Amino acid sequence: MIQSYKQNPQLQKNYDTIIIGSGMGGLTTAAFLAKEGQKVLVLERHYTPGGFTHIFKRKDYEWDVGIHYIGQMQNPKSMLKQLFDYITDKQLHWEDLGEVYDKIIIGNRSYDFVKGVKNFKVKMISYFPDEKEAIDKYIDTIYAASKTIRKFQIDKVIPPIASNLIGGFLRNPLYKYSDKTTYEVLRTITKNEELIKVLTGQYGDFGLPPKKSSFLMHALLVSHYFNGGSFPVGGSSQIVKTIEPIIAKSGGTILINAEVDKVIIENNTAIGVKMTDGKKIYAKKIVSGTGVMHTFNKLLPQETIAKFNLKAQLQKVDHSISHVGLYIGLKGTTEELQLPKSNYWIYPDDCDHDTCVERYLDDINKPFPLIFISFPSAKDPDWQNRYPGRSTIDIITLAPYDMFKKWKETKWMKRGADYKALKEDISQRLLNELYKQLPHVKGKIDYYELSTPLSTQNFVNYDKGEIYGIDHSPKRFKQKFLRPRTPIKNFYLTGQDIVSCGVGGALFSGVLTVSAMTGTNIIKKVLMEK
């Protein structure tokens, strides 16, 4: 049951586990624990659960704020699909995006990413016929890097003593790929800069351009989508709707409008949480899914932070990029407006990805370094049942937090005329980019609204409005503290900071967290039930 903390609901005296945050990591952790028979309380400060899987509504529309496509859902044997089936009792359904899931647009040149590895390879060779050997090697390298993640995940679950003994054996194969940047690896495969720019055309899915991102993150992302993309039927709100009954079945609850002030720690053991209104709720174990930055800086008592030197750990990682998102509502159906299912990734053609980003960060009036356009209403076969005669488009681009921080002390929707003017300027620039790709939608727009890093900060509680937690740079994967166990007894972490970003990464973090908490091989259990 989803209840509001503001309505003073009846709470249990003690829970098996309290989970702070209802993003994908928190929901997955809660669902698996509920399947193990635990009574779980999920606390969400926002007025709607789901983290980046939640939706918001305006007028005759709704928008998915974080989910635009997910890979591996059309293969019933994929681990990710089986995990989703397990935590939703197979009630969450997926729609295939079709043959072309991503379209990379560089200037006036367009490159389709098609589903199926063989098809992808053939397509890339058709664009770059002189690079067949390089493309073959690229795909082989992607698979080789991706395979190393399994042992790396095992190291995150085993006890510290075991990790000290055999952790190097489990981690070192991954470091071969994670220690190098994406660009470094690709330059050993090809010298064709256009091919490199195309192959890294999805970098916005984790936020770091090729010369700064870890090649491992690139490999995980690319392999994730090799067999195409899918979208949840009924929109991303279906994720919470299908997981919540699993939590409720074991007596658990999701509470919204429920902001935690501090984790209660006695004798280096987590025993409960104190809410912002002073109320205390107790449990045998506590899990934070709010990101390591927020957890270590704000949720833990100062004496605990000092005792384990946790702020020094945070100096080893960086915030990921922040963004603006333009949410557009249009009158007309997908068919009438000729909206595609494919995502568009649009880039300037006069510089490489990293140079374009640097140019923009130096002067935000320069061309956007990337623009991502998604057509959620076209992806969802149930959309017209809910919003007949309407359609939606999302446009996302990078935006530095510093661009908006002078308004950080103002309230949402009450940030003043200058803030509105800046948002309108960005909105018009993004709309002009949309019209370049789909000129026929001009004049069909009924509503639009721009979110900024302050919106993300307000609703998701990330310090600088970042969307991917901590950066996926080479140094990130070297940090041993990014694991479910913490130095505090009965206090655990989950979410996209544990392994990697995105819905899939956050879901796997939930698997690792529950495995660490219970000593159960969750993957084996899921496979055995199937």
Q: Any descriptors?
A:
single chain, 530 residues, alpha/beta, FAD/NAD(P)-binding domain, 7-stranded mixed β-sheet
Short synopsis of the structure:
Helix content is 40%, strand content 20%. The chain has 530 residues and is α/β, with parallel strands linked by helices. The strands form 4 sheets. Strands 1, 2, 3, 11, 12, 13, 14 and 20 form an 8-stranded mixed sheet that branches. It has a 7-stranded mixed sheet with strand order 9-8-16-17-18-15-19.
Word description of this protein:
By secondary structure, the protein is an alpha/beta fold. Among the domains are: 2-53 and 234-316 and 479-529, FAD/NAD(P)-binding domain (3-Layer(bba) Sandwich); 113-227, no CATH class. 40% of the residues lie in helices and 20% in strands. The protein has 21 helices and 20 strands. The strands form 4 sheets. Strands 1, 2, 3, 11, 12, 13, 14 and 20 form an 8-stranded mixed beta sheet that branches. A 7-stranded mixed beta sheet has the order 9-8-16-17-18-15-19. Helix 4 (132-147) packs across helix 9 (215-225). The longest helix is centred in the last third of the chain and has 21 residues, at 417-437. It is globular and about 60 Å long. The two termini are 27 Å apart. The mean pLDDT is 95.
